[in-house]
Amino acid sequence: MTDTFKFLLPENRIPRAWYNIVADLPAPPPAVLHPGTGKPIGPDDLAAIFPMALIAQEVATEREIEIPEPVREIYKLWRPSPLHRAVRLERALDTPARIFYKYEGVSPAGSHKPNTAVPQAFYNREAGIRKLSTETGAGQWGSSLAFAGSLFGLEVKVYMVRVSYQQKPYRRALMETYGASCIASPSTETAAGRAVLEQDPNSPGSLGIAISEAVEVAAHNADTNYALGSVLNHVALHQTVIGLEAIEQMEMAGFWPDVVIGCAGGGSNFAGIAFPFVGKKLREGKDVRVVAVEPAACPTLTRGTYAYDFGDIAHLTPLMKMHTLGSSFVPPGFHAGGLRYHGMAPLVSHAKELGLIEARTVHQNPCFEAGLMFARSEGIVPAPESTHAVRAAIDEALAAKEEGRPRTILFNLSGHGHFDMQAYTDYLSGKLEDRDYDEGCLQASLAALPQVAAE
Which residues span the domain enclosing 249? Predict the structure, then answer.
């Protein structure tokens, strides 16, 4: 086996620039369109809800974008994050595979989300903004923006998907501890929320609904900007610190991964681990398979249509070309709340269309089975979202065992599950159901996709 279980970088090896995959793609990504005119949006169209620095990053084409020193200073609270060799898991599986995982649960909020929450809070403060509104699914993004807001003196309001609001009270408590306010979505505070409740007073909510509420608040209040925890280009950009560090750490370990794996909901942690490796493949020909793993109950990449769609249910956002289940699609209330989004990041979707990544789906019971095996061998309880990556990594290791050939597996353990123990309780008691989406609802949602001439 190996005598080294974790590979650590010193603080001076925190990346000094984020990596922008757009510079290396063989074809440029499709333009983002204005919902009214159908024309590509310009900076002025986004200025009502985003600071200009983030708008510039959203459309940037240069390969490297410098990380501001105040952001790097805060990154030092938890970065560089460790790379672990899962030796005990390898032994439990009796596999010739080498399994590595990049552990993002060491951040103050317990996930990868502060990697973008901190720079978003920084750029908004620099622009003179004092209030931020946002949405959250499982609560990891909401607690991360609450944490970042507390560092920069920003008032943060979080609309949390109702089913997660009910399932995860300690995530709410964490947001409030950092000074944010947390509201169950759909709510009566916004026109978007009231419209949903009129149709379904018991709506479990969705990220598309919560986004509508948060965007509405930002658009109607000059002192408030909107912050998004996934999907957009600048969010994927900020998350590349994960993969940039992992490349150095894999070099320390003396291995190049045969496969890189990440769970995928909106696409942020997946892009963070995957894009720097894809960039190496595109620039240097360093071969690697890249696998996005999504829930069977919300199979955006594997079942969705690649088309222009809104990012929210009230159609307040620009039109983005992405893999989508339709903006009105509401998935069932499974435990991986952070993966319950109808669309996939445009850059991740574009990478799949170019054949640079692959995607697979899994149900939640096999995921929690993998999460338990990981916890009992490696000692870390994965977040429900992260168990999707754990499941895929274990499957890859078992395939290597069956073939009798070693392979090197790297996955992103995007967060811990300390606030998600009810999900593990449900699994251990046999109460966890493998939920499937409603095919009729999906077809109705896809039938309502906007008609865009640019397609």
Answer: 6-14+67-110+234-447
